[in-house]
Amino acid sequence: MVKKKMQNLGVLFVALLTFSIIGFIISVNFNSSNAISELTDEYNSLKTSATYLDIEIDALATTNTSTSGNWTWAKENGYCTGFGTSGSPYVIQNHIFEYFSGSGDCLRILNSREYFTIRDCSFRNSAGSGTGLFLFNVTNGRILNCDAFSNYNGIEIEEVNNTELTGNHVYGNVAGMIIDSSHINTISNNNVSANAIDGIYVTQSTFNTISYNLANENGYGISLNPNCDNNKLIGNTVNLNSQNGIDINSCDSLTIHKNSVYSNTLNGILVDGAYNLLCTSNTANENKQNGILFDNTDDSEIENNIAHNNGMNGIALTASSTLNILKLNYAQKNNLSGILLDSGCHNNILVSNTVKENDKHGIYLIGSNNNVLTDNIANSNEMNGIHLESSNGNAIILNTANGNKNGTFLDGSNNNKIINNILLGNLICFNETGSVGNIFEGNICTSTEGFTIDLAITSVVLLVFVIIESVVIGAIVAWFYMKKRKPKT
Fold it and tell me: For the chain, which has fewer Cβ within 10 Å, the N-terminal or C-terminal residue?
C-alpha cells in the first residue's frame, strides 16, 4: 500500500515537473517571440512608406513650422533617423515627397554640413517650375536608389560638394538632373532618361565624375555648359536623344572616355570651345550628323574612338581647331568623310587612323594648313582616300590609300608634301587640280589604268640596276682578262 502511494507521488511529481518545464519553455518562447516581434515591428516601421508634402530641412533653421525645420526637427517628426555623423548619418528612407504649396519643391535640404543619406524615396509632382529633390549649400550627402518623376526638374543640386548621386531613376521631367556650381561630386549608375530637355545638365561645376549613367531619349543626353573644367565623363550610355548625345560648351581639361553614343538626332559628341581635352575609346555610331565633332577646340587628344555609319562625318574638327592629335581612331561607312578638318584647322597631327568605306572621302581637309598626316589607312572610300581642298603646307607621309577613286586629290592646294605613301588600286593615283608647288616623292602607286611608279623610285631602281650591271660586267671582264693571261701548261 505504501509502495503504491509512493508510486502515485512519483507520477504526480514527474507530471508537475513536466508541466513546469513546458510552462517555462512556453514562457521563454512567448517572451522571445515578443522580442522578435518588437524588433520586426521596429524594422517594419522604418520600412513603411509615408507621403509628405512640401518638406524643407534647413540645418541653420532656428524656428520650426509644420513643414520646415532643422535636422533635429526632422528627426523628431519621423522624417529621418541617425545622428548626422559619418558613422551614423541622418537617413531619410522609403518616403514619398510631393508638392502641395510653398516653394514648389517636394523636398528641400539647405545649408547642411552633416552627413546624410536619402535612400529609396520618390519625388513627384512638383510645382510648374519646381524640383522633386533640391539640395542647396550642402556637403556629405548620398542620394541612393530614388525615383524622381513628373517634376519640372527631377533632382537639382546647387553649391553642393562631396555628394554622391547613385542608382537613381529620373524620368518624365522637363530636366532630369541639374548640377549647378557644384564640385567634387559623383554622379554614377543613374538612369536619367525620357526627360524633355536635358538628361544631365551641368553648369559652373568642376572636378565631378559622371560615370556609367544611362541618358537615353532626352533632349540633350549629357550637357556641360560654361566653366565646367576638369570633369570626367566615363562609361555613359547616351542614345536616342533628340539633340546631341554629349554636348560640351566652353569647358577645359575634360576626360571623355568609353562613352557609347548611338542614334542621336544631331551629333554623338559635340565639343564647342574647349582646350586640353582627352577624348578616348568612345563609340559614336549611327548619329544623324557627326559621330564626334570638335569645334574651336585646341590642344586635345582624340584617340582610339570608333565612329561608324554616321549621317555626316565620323570625326570632324571645325572652326579653327588647332594643335590636336588624332590617333588610332576608326571611322567607317559614314555618309561623308571618315575624318574631316574644316575651316582653319591648322597644325594638327593625324596618325595611325583607319578611315575606310566612307561615302565621300577617307580624310578630307578644307582650308586647313600645316597638318601632318602619317601612317593612316584610307582605303575603299567612294571618292578620295586623302582629299585636300584649299589647304596648304601639309605633310602627307607614309599613308596607305588603296581602292579609292583617287588615292590623293589636291584641289587648289599648294606647297604640300606627298611622300612615301602606298596608293594601290585607285582609279587615279594622284589628282592635282589648280595646285602648285606640291612635292611628290617616293610614292608607290597602281591605278586601274596600269602600274605607275614615281620618278624618284624609277631613278633609284635604274641606279641600282646600273650598279648591278656594272658589277656583273666588271666581273665578266676581269674573269675574261685573268683567263687570257693564264700561262699555258
Answer: C
Which H, E and C letters describe 435-479, residue by residue? CCCCEEECCEEEECCEEEECHHHHHHHHHHHHHHHHHHHHHHHHH
Is residue 23 included in any domain, yes or no?
no
Beta bridge partners of 389: 366, 411
- What is the distance between the alpha carbons of residues 220 and 113, in angstroms, rounded to a whole number? 32
Cell reading at 301: 587628344
The residues that bridge with 57 in the sheet, in sequence order, are 69, 109
| Position 477 in a domain | yes
Provide the percentage of residues in the chain whose pLDDT is more than 90.
80
Q: Which helix (H) or strand (E) holds 4?
A: helix 2-47
Cell of 445: 602607286
Extract the C-alpha cell encoding 31.
517572451
Which spans in 48-76 are helix H?
71-76
User: pLDDT digits over 156-189, tens only?
Assistant: 999 999 999 999 999 999 999 999 999 999 999 9
Domain count of the chain?
1
Residue 7 has pLDDT above 90, yes or no: no
Evaluate whether residue 438 is within a structural domain: no
**Side chain identity, residue 138:** V
**CA–CA separation, 445 vs 422, rounded Å?**
6
The dihedrals phi and psi of 94, each to the nearest 5 degrees, come to 60, 40
Q: Quick one: what percent of the chain has pLDDT higher than 70? A: 82
pTM equals 0.83
CB contact at 8 A, 349 and 371: yes
Residues 228, 229, 230: CA angle, nearest 5 degrees? 130
HSE-up of residue 312 (Cα within 13 Å, Cβ side): 16
Residue 325 lies in a domain: no
Identify the residue whose cell numbers are 515627397. Answer: 97
Tell me the three state secondary structure of residue 288: coil
Residue with C-alpha cell 524643407? 56
Asked whether 436 and 413 are in contact (CB, 8 A), the reply is: no
Residue with more model confidence, 41 or 61 = 61
Range of the domain at 463: 454-489
- The Cα-based distances of 5 to 10, 13, 235, 345 in angstroms read 9, 12, 88, 117
Contacting residues for 96 by C-beta, under 8 A, at least 6 apart: 49, 50, 51, 52, 121, 122, 124
Beta bridge partners of 302: 279, 326
* 277: amino acid identity, one letter: L
